[in-house]
């Protein structure tokens, strides 16, 4: 006769396990210690098997019967309920590993070979701050465009529209990666566009020091009373016009002072291509003066606060702010200053671009430029250093007058 709740409640544990049968192979097993387990006895493939359906009272009599009926429906379809349960568990575990966060980390690892460590850290930090809190635990196959849009709008609401656009770009890349890996069929972010999702924003370029203010700037740099290494970092940055991150990570083993060359390895360059920096006499003198105080870790500009770390990203701009140039000049803006002056003074545009490490995409042309422009770039680097020295001394003719003279002398 079928079980009742009363029968179950009145069942007492005995010295041996007891089985209280219901119907359709369902029974309750009462252990000597008092535990009660629902079991289903069934046959599949000519073998008798058992399937656990939960414990009582967590699983009620009604609940156990429903689970029994579900299992028997699988049997009727030719499936083994126990094997199906294992398959469902494996699928759930698989889907858990394919939540957005682990997929994003797999995408990050896949791209690590072509990214500098600093770039990788920035990308990870942006995902941790603005993507993982909203999408991280969601199975990537369940994420829709509206979920991504909500995450990006939440980032924009913090007042960082540019960051929101970057996060969207990275989230889209994660989904492209998942499609290529055949973890999802389609990319739900294909139609999620930053210009349609985010509020229009004014693009702000990095502030570049005006050439007309260069003499005053150099005088203030000479009078800078902050950390001496930071002042030297600004001087070398202005002389070499490398990117601030490339300067901050500079190592002594990259620099050959006798040859007046600084070879920045590909892994530290934005475009992942080695960059040769010709060093002017002034740059070599600056580095020779700093050489006796070499950092044990090999960094040219180590942090004064954190051993083994380079100067922080904000150190150079903070120094410029202390000098009175907040909002007027940035460390990265030295590159724009150099480009403006060098172009106005008639130097070869291709040589200027190579000096700025704006890499030629075509591999054959890039190889040619690396070989052909070393002498020209060396001369350009020395011209720029001499130009700065002249501005410092106040004997360089302003660009506008030089340009007018050049036009007047032209045939």
Structure description:
This protein is α+β, with helices and mostly antiparallel strands and 411 residues long. It has three domains: 86 residues, Double Stranded RNA Binding Domain; 98 residues, Orthogonal Bundle (DNA polymerase, domain 1), CATH 1.10.150; 199 residues, hpI Integrase, Chain A, CATH 1.10.443. It has 19 helices and seven strands. The strands form two sheets. It has a four-stranded antiparallel sheet with strand order 1-2-3-4, covered by helices on one side. A three-stranded antiparallel sheet has the order 5-6-7. Helix 5 crosses helix 8 and helix 10 crosses helix 18. It is elongated and about 110 Å long. The relative contact order is 0.07. The C terminus is likely disordered.
